[in-house]
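hiii, so i know i said id send this last week but things got crazy w the move. better late than never?? heres the sequnce for the chain we talked about at the cafe, plus the structure i predicted for it. fair warning i was half asleep when i ran it
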Amino acid sequence: MTRCFPLFLRRTSSDETEEGIPALRLKSTVAAHKLLDEIMNPFEHGHGNLGIIDNRFMEDYRWPWAIIFFKEEFPLPGYVAELRRTFRNMPMTCYSVSFSYEAIKTEDDVPPVSVVFVRSKRVLECAARNSPLFAPSWEALRDKSECRRWLCISDSPPTPWIMETARGDSQRYLSVMRAERAASRQPLPENTDPKLLLNQALADEFYDAELWDSAIEAYRKVLGQLPCRADAMRSLAFACFRNGQMEDAVAAYREALKHYPGEIPLLGNYGIACKALGMLRDAEHAFRCILHIEPTESRAWINLADVHRRMGQRSNAIRAFETFLGLEPDCDAAWQGLGTTLSEEDRIDEAVLAHEQAVILNPHRAAHWNILGHMYAQQGHLDIAKKLCGQALKLDPQNPDAWDSIGFIYSKSGQAEKAEEAFRKALNFRPDHPKANYHLGVTYLIVGRTEDAKAILERLKAISPTYAERLAEEIGSRIVQQSLVPN
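okay and structure toks below
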């Protein structure tokens, strides 16, 4: 029986689990490996996690939607490779579960099929219509959200079909691989400097090993000798992006896009890099280009929504969030983003409903409970707010936002001493928290500690000019009020 499990690709401060699957962290954990091994071992896949748990979880357009493990290995790499060429944006890779190349090496140097990576739900649907190999995995995944990532343990197709299809497959595989290498690596001119050949080979090796600093240096040497190599520029862009060098990534993406103007991964990561640098117009243009090519590319919609929100175009952001949620209705992060944007538009009732939906979809995330609680507090429903923010602290006792909300609730209810204590806890976990500093300063003013409030103001000037200005206005107003009180 084919089974599938969700992979929760989100940052988390603890080894959370849900439905028996680790909420995978940015770094490997013993608990995450143990849980994944418990799932994989019954299917003889326990020796390889294929990088499922690593430090690569980011807004990367190359991360696959589904990782399909077959319950057995079979000699169909040529068939799979041809499917990869048939369907646009369908990167598939053949691996052996043993991870021992010598153990799987055949006479013609062709590996068996064990694992396939599929980038999008739409592509798997197309593949399943054309190949019985993917029919079981599609049946298991057809109702699953494209917002999440999935691990699928798939039944194999009937043995007679495998035997018939495997005839001549090794030659088919080698032919496809030769063609792909020729297409992906631009041929070097005759009489090329041997140093350039060495740098190109080293760069490709470093890239494949994810040694980004070394890959970047090697690709720059290649481009210094041969600036027109489009494939090297594209690889340099991806390497800079993965290494967090966003300014360099943007420059390289711009050059690469001159040669590959419609490549969605390039456009997507270029947009994300621009967004990270505050180049919002460029980011907006990149995501709109993606949607012109593929109108149902959900990640482009949610990134576009975020860009519009940052630009202050809240109506456009709301429309983009709603379009995304029409494609991916069970994405809790999108409901949170929609709720926050709606609240900024003073559409409070709709915002509350959106945040409630985020809590329903992902009750294990403290931020959802806290935001919802803070909204209830702003409306004066303090008892409800306290319970919601309390739930956030149960999930994450060191969450500074939740402690700030608790302090705000106490302040609204006239309990200044408890409010001060909560704000101090928030600042203990994050000293530069702008709202907690501001709220603590206001609390000092309420109890008449104007000098302490002024000290907070000086701190805020270096943290958040916006909140510093607001606190300065509060202090000025309080001083004026005190001057009007007769002696």
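btw Confidence is low (pLDDT under 50) at residues 8-29, 43-62, 91-107. thought thatd interest u
miss u guys!!
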